[in-house]
UniProtKB/TrEMBL annotation:
Cellular component terms per the entry's GO annotation: endoplasmic reticulum membrane
Name of this protein: procollagen-proline 4-dioxygenase
Subcellular location: Endoplasmic reticulum membrane
Membrane topology: Single-pass type II membrane protein
Gene Ontology MF terms: iron ion binding; L-ascorbic acid binding; procollagen-proline 4-dioxygenase activity
One Pfam family cited in the UniProt record for this chain: 2OG-FeII_Oxy_3
Catalytic activity: L-prolyl-[collagen] + 2-oxoglutarate + O2 = trans-4-hydroxy-L-prolyl-[collagen] + succinate + CO2
Organism annotation: Acer yangbiense
Keyword ATP-binding: no
Transmembrane segments: 21-42
Requisite cofactors: L-ascorbate
Major place of residence: endoplasmic reticulum
Alphabetical list of PROSITE patterns matching this protein: FE2OG_OXY
Family: Belongs to the P4HA family.
Length: 290
Protein backbone atom coordinates (compact mmCIF):
# COMPACT_ATOMS: atom_id res chain seq x y z
CA UNK A 1 0.00 0.00 0.00
CA UNK A 2 2.78 2.39 0.88
CA UNK A 3 4.56 3.64 -2.20
CA UNK A 4 8.30 3.45 -2.38
CA UNK A 5 9.71 6.64 -1.07
CA UNK A 6 11.98 7.09 -4.03
CA UNK A 7 9.22 7.56 -6.57
CA UNK A 8 7.83 10.67 -4.87
CA UNK A 9 11.02 12.14 -3.63
CA UNK A 10 13.72 11.30 -6.15
CA UNK A 11 17.18 11.27 -4.74
CA UNK A 12 19.41 14.30 -5.15
CA UNK A 13 21.59 12.36 -7.56
CA UNK A 14 18.84 11.53 -10.09
CA UNK A 15 17.48 15.12 -9.88
CA UNK A 16 20.79 16.64 -10.85
CA UNK A 17 21.23 14.19 -13.74
CA UNK A 18 17.79 15.24 -15.10
CA UNK A 19 18.89 18.88 -14.97
CA UNK A 20 22.11 18.04 -16.78
CA UNK A 21 20.18 16.14 -19.42
CA UNK A 22 17.79 19.06 -19.97
CA UNK A 23 20.64 21.56 -20.16
CA UNK A 24 22.47 19.40 -22.68
CA UNK A 25 19.31 19.09 -24.78
CA UNK A 26 18.81 22.88 -24.63
CA UNK A 27 22.39 23.57 -25.71
CA UNK A 28 22.13 21.07 -28.57
CA UNK A 29 18.81 22.56 -29.68
CA UNK A 30 20.28 26.08 -29.66
CA UNK A 31 23.27 24.83 -31.60
CA UNK A 32 21.08 23.21 -34.26
CA UNK A 33 19.00 26.42 -34.63
CA UNK A 34 22.18 28.48 -34.99
CA UNK A 35 23.51 26.12 -37.65
CA UNK A 36 20.21 26.28 -39.56
CA UNK A 37 20.24 30.09 -39.35
CA UNK A 38 23.83 30.21 -40.56
CA UNK A 39 23.02 27.96 -43.51
CA UNK A 40 20.06 30.17 -44.39
CA UNK A 41 17.57 27.30 -44.09
CA UNK A 42 15.71 29.23 -41.42
CA UNK A 43 15.32 32.97 -41.68
CA UNK A 44 14.44 35.60 -39.14
CA UNK A 45 11.48 37.78 -40.07
CA UNK A 46 12.90 41.20 -40.86
CA UNK A 47 11.01 44.25 -39.76
CA UNK A 48 12.23 46.39 -42.66
CA UNK A 49 9.78 44.80 -45.13
CA UNK A 50 6.84 46.39 -43.43
CA UNK A 51 3.31 45.32 -44.20
CA UNK A 52 2.56 45.29 -47.90
CA UNK A 53 -0.86 45.49 -49.43
CA UNK A 54 -2.31 42.12 -50.40
CA UNK A 55 -2.51 43.09 -54.07
CA UNK A 56 0.98 44.59 -54.28
CA UNK A 57 2.53 42.57 -57.11
CA UNK A 58 5.88 44.28 -56.69
CA UNK A 59 6.61 42.27 -53.56
CA UNK A 60 6.12 39.04 -55.54
CA UNK A 61 8.49 40.30 -58.20
CA UNK A 62 11.10 41.33 -55.62
CA UNK A 63 10.92 37.92 -53.98
CA UNK A 64 11.38 36.24 -57.35
CA UNK A 65 14.24 38.54 -58.27
CA UNK A 66 16.01 38.19 -54.92
CA UNK A 67 15.89 34.41 -54.97
CA UNK A 68 17.04 34.10 -58.59
CA UNK A 69 20.71 34.46 -59.43
CA UNK A 70 20.10 37.63 -61.39
CA UNK A 71 22.58 39.65 -63.34
CA UNK A 72 24.14 42.62 -61.62
CA UNK A 73 23.47 45.12 -64.40
CA UNK A 74 19.68 44.96 -64.19
CA UNK A 75 17.89 48.04 -62.87
CA UNK A 76 15.12 47.89 -60.27
CA UNK A 77 12.21 45.66 -61.27
CA UNK A 78 8.59 46.24 -60.42
CA UNK A 79 5.18 45.56 -61.88
CA UNK A 80 2.62 48.26 -62.56
CA UNK A 81 -1.00 47.39 -63.38
CA UNK A 82 -2.01 49.90 -66.07
CA UNK A 83 -5.49 48.69 -67.01
CA UNK A 84 -8.21 46.22 -66.07
CA UNK A 85 -10.05 46.45 -69.41
CA UNK A 86 -8.02 45.10 -71.12
CA UNK A 87 -6.09 43.41 -68.34
CA UNK A 88 -2.60 44.85 -68.81
CA UNK A 89 0.49 45.43 -66.72
CA UNK A 90 4.02 46.65 -67.29
CA UNK A 91 6.98 44.81 -65.77
CA UNK A 92 9.73 47.38 -65.58
CA UNK A 93 13.29 46.25 -66.41
CA UNK A 94 12.12 42.76 -67.25
CA UNK A 95 15.12 42.23 -69.54
CA UNK A 96 18.69 43.38 -68.93
CA UNK A 97 20.42 45.59 -71.50
CA UNK A 98 22.61 42.60 -72.41
CA UNK A 99 19.55 40.42 -73.12
CA UNK A 100 17.99 43.15 -75.31
CA UNK A 101 21.19 43.51 -77.32
CA UNK A 102 21.51 39.73 -77.60
CA UNK A 103 18.02 39.36 -79.10
CA UNK A 104 18.59 42.20 -81.58
CA UNK A 105 21.97 40.79 -82.71
CA UNK A 106 20.48 37.32 -83.10
CA UNK A 107 17.54 38.57 -85.18
CA UNK A 108 19.25 41.25 -87.28
CA UNK A 109 20.61 39.03 -90.09
CA UNK A 110 17.23 37.36 -90.58
CA UNK A 111 14.80 40.29 -90.67
CA UNK A 112 12.04 40.05 -93.26
CA UNK A 113 9.17 42.32 -94.16
CA UNK A 114 6.34 41.62 -91.71
CA UNK A 115 3.15 39.99 -92.90
CA UNK A 116 -0.32 39.67 -91.42
CA UNK A 117 -2.59 36.66 -91.31
CA UNK A 118 -5.20 36.56 -94.08
CA UNK A 119 -8.51 36.07 -92.28
CA UNK A 120 -9.94 34.02 -95.17
CA UNK A 121 -7.11 31.64 -96.00
CA UNK A 122 -5.24 31.80 -92.68
CA UNK A 123 -1.99 32.25 -94.60
CA UNK A 124 0.54 35.06 -94.18
CA UNK A 125 0.30 37.98 -96.58
CA UNK A 126 1.97 41.33 -97.13
CA UNK A 127 0.15 44.28 -95.72
CA UNK A 128 0.07 48.01 -95.50
CA UNK A 129 -1.32 47.94 -91.96
CA UNK A 130 1.93 46.42 -90.73
CA UNK A 131 5.05 47.95 -92.16
CA UNK A 132 7.75 46.63 -89.82
CA UNK A 133 10.22 43.82 -90.44
CA UNK A 134 10.71 40.81 -88.22
CA UNK A 135 11.83 37.25 -87.59
CA UNK A 136 11.05 34.34 -85.25
CA UNK A 137 13.51 32.83 -82.76
CA UNK A 138 12.78 29.18 -81.98
CA UNK A 139 11.47 28.46 -78.50
CA UNK A 140 14.18 27.20 -76.15
CA UNK A 141 16.91 27.71 -78.77
CA UNK A 142 19.62 28.61 -76.21
CA UNK A 143 20.24 29.30 -72.53
CA UNK A 144 19.55 33.07 -72.69
CA UNK A 145 16.26 32.54 -74.52
CA UNK A 146 15.26 29.72 -72.17
CA UNK A 147 15.96 32.06 -69.20
CA UNK A 148 13.75 34.76 -70.73
CA UNK A 149 11.01 32.23 -71.50
CA UNK A 150 11.15 30.93 -67.92
CA UNK A 151 10.81 34.52 -66.65
CA UNK A 152 7.80 35.04 -68.94
CA UNK A 153 6.23 31.84 -67.57
CA UNK A 154 6.78 33.07 -63.98
CA UNK A 155 5.32 36.49 -64.80
CA UNK A 156 2.23 35.19 -66.61
CA UNK A 157 1.68 31.98 -64.59
CA UNK A 158 1.43 30.24 -67.97
CA UNK A 159 3.77 27.38 -68.88
CA UNK A 160 6.52 28.06 -71.44
CA UNK A 161 5.17 25.17 -73.55
CA UNK A 162 2.13 27.31 -74.43
CA UNK A 163 4.29 30.02 -75.96
CA UNK A 164 5.10 30.53 -79.63
CA UNK A 165 8.69 31.32 -80.57
CA UNK A 166 9.80 34.87 -79.78
CA UNK A 167 9.21 37.26 -82.62
CA UNK A 168 11.67 40.15 -82.94
CA UNK A 169 10.39 43.26 -84.72
CA UNK A 170 12.06 46.37 -86.06
CA UNK A 171 10.28 49.64 -86.86
CA UNK A 172 12.02 52.54 -88.59
CA UNK A 173 10.63 56.09 -88.63
CA UNK A 174 7.20 56.07 -90.25
CA UNK A 175 6.67 52.35 -89.66
CA UNK A 176 3.69 51.22 -87.57
CA UNK A 177 1.16 48.49 -86.92
CA UNK A 178 -2.49 49.53 -87.18
CA UNK A 179 -4.78 48.48 -84.30
CA UNK A 180 -5.64 44.76 -84.42
CA UNK A 181 -6.42 41.80 -82.17
CA UNK A 182 -3.90 39.08 -81.38
CA UNK A 183 -6.59 36.40 -81.30
CA UNK A 184 -7.54 34.55 -84.47
CA UNK A 185 -10.83 34.47 -86.32
CA UNK A 186 -9.95 31.43 -88.45
CA UNK A 187 -9.67 27.67 -87.94
CA UNK A 188 -6.26 27.33 -89.57
CA UNK A 189 -4.22 29.27 -87.03
CA UNK A 190 -5.77 27.72 -83.93
CA UNK A 191 -5.04 24.09 -84.90
CA UNK A 192 -1.76 24.16 -82.99
CA UNK A 193 -2.20 25.40 -79.42
CA UNK A 194 -5.69 26.84 -79.76
CA UNK A 195 -6.48 30.52 -79.36
CA UNK A 196 -3.94 33.16 -78.33
CA UNK A 197 -4.69 34.04 -74.72
CA UNK A 198 -2.03 36.53 -73.67
CA UNK A 199 0.79 38.56 -75.17
CA UNK A 200 4.07 39.68 -73.62
CA UNK A 201 5.60 42.52 -75.59
CA UNK A 202 9.17 43.36 -74.66
CA UNK A 203 10.82 46.61 -75.70
CA UNK A 204 14.42 46.00 -76.75
CA UNK A 205 15.22 49.68 -77.37
CA UNK A 206 14.16 53.13 -76.28
CA UNK A 207 12.34 55.16 -78.93
CA UNK A 208 12.98 58.90 -78.96
CA UNK A 209 9.52 59.79 -80.22
CA UNK A 210 6.42 57.77 -81.18
CA UNK A 211 6.30 53.97 -81.42
CA UNK A 212 3.97 53.60 -78.43
CA UNK A 213 1.78 50.54 -77.99
CA UNK A 214 -1.72 51.97 -77.98
CA UNK A 215 -5.00 50.39 -76.81
CA UNK A 216 -7.69 52.56 -78.45
CA UNK A 217 -10.57 50.59 -76.86
CA UNK A 218 -9.26 50.58 -73.27
CA UNK A 219 -11.70 51.63 -70.55
CA UNK A 220 -10.66 53.89 -67.73
CA UNK A 221 -8.60 57.05 -67.42
CA UNK A 222 -6.06 56.87 -70.26
CA UNK A 223 -4.28 60.05 -69.12
CA UNK A 224 -3.40 58.69 -65.69
CA UNK A 225 -0.18 57.02 -66.87
CA UNK A 226 2.96 58.76 -65.61
CA UNK A 227 4.36 59.10 -69.18
CA UNK A 228 1.25 60.85 -70.58
CA UNK A 229 3.07 64.11 -71.41
CA UNK A 230 5.72 62.25 -73.44
CA UNK A 231 3.22 60.53 -75.76
CA UNK A 232 2.83 61.28 -79.48
CA UNK A 233 -0.50 62.38 -80.94
CA UNK A 234 -1.22 58.75 -81.90
CA UNK A 235 -0.27 57.62 -78.40
CA UNK A 236 -2.82 59.95 -76.84
CA UNK A 237 -5.67 58.28 -78.77
CA UNK A 238 -5.87 55.51 -76.19
CA UNK A 239 -4.14 53.89 -73.26
CA UNK A 240 -0.49 53.87 -74.29
CA UNK A 241 2.78 52.35 -73.20
CA UNK A 242 5.91 54.24 -74.11
CA UNK A 243 8.69 51.89 -75.28
CA UNK A 244 11.55 51.68 -72.81
CA UNK A 245 14.47 49.29 -73.22
CA UNK A 246 13.96 46.19 -71.05
CA UNK A 247 10.32 46.84 -70.10
CA UNK A 248 7.72 44.16 -70.79
CA UNK A 249 4.02 44.73 -71.38
CA UNK A 250 1.67 41.85 -70.59
CA UNK A 251 -1.91 42.02 -71.81
CA UNK A 252 -4.68 39.46 -72.14
CA UNK A 253 -6.72 38.84 -75.30
CA UNK A 254 -9.13 36.69 -73.31
CA UNK A 255 -11.31 37.34 -70.31
CA UNK A 256 -10.98 35.02 -67.31
CA UNK A 257 -14.00 33.06 -68.61
CA UNK A 258 -12.12 32.40 -71.90
CA UNK A 259 -14.32 34.68 -74.02
CA UNK A 260 -12.45 37.03 -76.36
CA UNK A 261 -11.77 40.49 -74.93
CA UNK A 262 -12.47 43.11 -77.60
CA UNK A 263 -10.89 45.80 -75.42
CA UNK A 264 -7.51 44.15 -76.18
CA UNK A 265 -7.46 45.95 -79.55
CA UNK A 266 -3.96 47.43 -79.87
CA UNK A 267 -1.54 48.90 -82.36
CA UNK A 268 1.98 50.21 -82.74
CA UNK A 269 2.08 53.97 -83.28
CA UNK A 270 4.33 55.20 -86.09
CA UNK A 271 7.92 55.75 -84.98
CA UNK A 272 8.64 59.46 -85.34
CA UNK A 273 12.24 59.66 -84.22
CA UNK A 274 14.70 56.84 -83.53
CA UNK A 275 14.35 53.09 -84.03
CA UNK A 276 12.04 50.67 -82.32
CA UNK A 277 13.06 47.10 -81.57
CA UNK A 278 10.62 44.86 -79.78
CA UNK A 279 10.08 41.18 -79.10
CA UNK A 280 6.72 39.47 -78.78
CA UNK A 281 5.71 36.25 -77.03
CA UNK A 282 2.23 35.03 -77.88
CA UNK A 283 0.82 32.54 -75.44
CA UNK A 284 -1.85 29.98 -76.40
CA UNK A 285 -4.53 28.31 -74.32
CA UNK A 286 -2.94 24.87 -74.91
CA UNK A 287 0.53 23.53 -75.56
CA UNK A 288 2.02 25.00 -78.72
CA UNK A 289 3.95 22.22 -80.47
CA UNK A 290 7.25 23.13 -82.10
C1 LIG B 1 -7.31 61.22 -65.14
O1 LIG B 1 -6.02 61.17 -64.54
C2 LIG B 1 -5.37 62.43 -64.51
C3 LIG B 1 -3.95 62.19 -63.99
O2 LIG B 1 -3.94 61.36 -62.86
C4 LIG B 1 -6.17 63.39 -63.65
O3 LIG B 1 -5.52 64.63 -63.64
C5 LIG B 1 -7.55 63.53 -64.25
O4 LIG B 1 -8.34 64.34 -63.41
C6 LIG B 1 -8.20 62.16 -64.39
N1 LIG B 1 -9.45 62.31 -65.12
C7 LIG B 1 -10.59 61.77 -64.68
C8 LIG B 1 -11.78 61.99 -65.54
O5 LIG B 1 -10.67 61.12 -63.64
Amino acid sequence: MAKPRNSRFPSRKSSSSTTTLMLTALIMFTFVILVLLALGILSMPSGSGGSRKANDLSSIVRNTVETSEGEEDRAEQWVEVISWEPRASVYHNFLSKKECEYLIDLAKPHMQKSTVVDSETGKSKDSRVRTSSGTFLARGRDKIIRDIEKRIADFTFLPAEQGEGLQVLHYEPGQKYEPHYDYFMDEFNTKNGGQRMATVLMYLSDVEEGGETVFPAAKGNISSVSWWNELSECGKKGLSVKPKMGDALLFWSMNPDATLDSSSLHGGCPVIKGNKWSSTKWIRVNEYKI
